[in-house]
Design a protein that fits this description.
mainly alpha; 0% strand; elongated
Length: 60
């Protein structure tokens, strides 16, 4: 398994409320952009997976 996948599997050890309380606003903004980017990429990945399943005649 790649290092990237292993890193993405690790949950954050802090509750979101704790993160908001301890991160400076600029770092919180970066984290928010990163989360949005990952969420968008995940939607694209799911769409590609559905398209591939349909192409192969599998249930999506």
């Amino acid at each position: 398994m790649s290092k990237a996948i292993k890193a993405l599997e690790k949950p954050m050890n802090l509750d979101p409320q704790q993160i908001v309380q301890i991160l400076p606003p600029d770092q919180l903004a970066v984290l928010n952009r990163l989360c949005g980017s990952v969420s968008h990429w995940h939607e694209l990945l799911l769409a590609a997976e559905r398209a591939e399943a349909q192409k192969n005649g599998e249930a999506a």
